[in-house]
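Long-time lurker, first post.

We've been arguing in lab meeting about whether magnesium ion would sit comfortably in this protein at all. Half the group thinks yes, half thinks no, and nobody has a model to point at. So I'm putting the question to the forum: if I give you the sequence and the SMILES, can you give me back a predicted structure of the complex? Inputs are below. Any interpretation is welcome too.
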Amino acid sequence: MSVEVREQMTSTDNPMGRPVVAANNPLIAERDSHDTRPLAIKTINVSRVYKIRGQKNKNGETTKTLTALGGVDLEVYQGELFGLLGPNGAGKTTLIKILTTLLAPSGGLCYVDGLDVVKQADEARRRINMVSGGETSGYGILTVRENLWMFSQFYGVSNKDAQERITKMLKIVELEDKANARVSGLSTGQRQRMNFCRGFITDPRVVFLDEPTLGLDVNAARIVRNFTRDWMSEDPSRTVLLTTHYMAEADELCDRIAIIDHGAVLACDTPANLKRLLQKQPVFEINAGGLNDRSLDAMAHSPGVVRMTSEAAEGGSAYNLKFILEDEAAIGGVVSTLAAHNGNIISLQKNEPTLEDVFIKLVGRSLSQNEE
Ligand SMILES: Nc1ncnc2c1ncn2[C@@H]1O[C@H](COP(=O)(O)OP(=O)(O)OP(=O)(O)O)[C@@H](O)[C@H]1O
Ligand SMILES: [Mg+2]
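Top reply:
Settle the argument with this. Predicted structure of the protein with magnesium ion, as tokens:
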């Protein structure tokens, strides 16, 4: 969106209360015009184009660009745990970086807690915090407690509050015994847990969690999920924007989810409503052997197949195939095609639709599948 529009929006009343910009997408649940719930995050046609280094014309201008975000409209209510779900390179981190003032948008408008993140970046920073999964930063020569205390001081938290919050958070993430250990001696997962604590000791109004459970063991991931939920329920005005690759995590945690790919929002609704999209389209899973590219292709084009994904099963020649069908009867044709190509079925089952299936239907591939 042009700069002209930015001026228009900020010179009038608080844009956080404005109705949604027409999305023109039936999969994006529009906000009811009577809905007066305050918004914690709003983006209007936000875009980001990266210049690719090393590609210059004879005038020294960068010629190659990559559009990471192509005009994203999002609305996250105060008190919501909102998930951004998308494959590698979808633009999730780019959007989070823009919303946390770390990166300037190429166009469009972004508001967090009522503030324009470009024009009111300093004030916005005081109200937010961010945790990136896999992040192993921290000052090695300081202890865990010193590190967290230092960050709390950047935000002007009183010494008493900081010490109390640090003690509480370290207990929650089961890192109490490391409070006085140097950060350089922590394992990767322990550092990550410390960084998770860092995201909350400043008492932010909006927290951005970019894959917070990435690389954590099962127990630590559960602690992170439980804490996030508890933290939200302690104060209904708190908001979390979370990105994840883990469908089950998004399904379990999030009030609403936006599925994004190639820098665009494909669908946005509650997990239950998203799954309802598939209610009329049954999902079948077949484990089969004796297949090749030709037979896989024939099955994908069997009548009534909306989507098919195939993954080679671990440690063998069999394939796990997933089908989204127009109706149940279509499975007969799939089985006949498989038999006609000398494939053999090891197992066949009908599944309740999951978010993964919704994702496959919308994006055309599973989250774990790389793009061709
Ligand atoms: N600094 C950069 N310079 C050039 N291109 C970039 C830069 N950062 C990201 N990109 C590109 O922008 C696109 C979106 O990247 P982004 O990191 O936002 O994706 P993501 O959804 O967070 O992916 P992932 O799941 O892998 O974390 C990708 O194609 C990426 O290669
Ligand atoms: Mg990312």
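For your lab meeting: The longest strand covers residues 39-51. Residues 280-352 form a domain with the Alpha-Beta Plaits fold (CATH 3.30.70.260). Whichever side wins, do check it experimentally.
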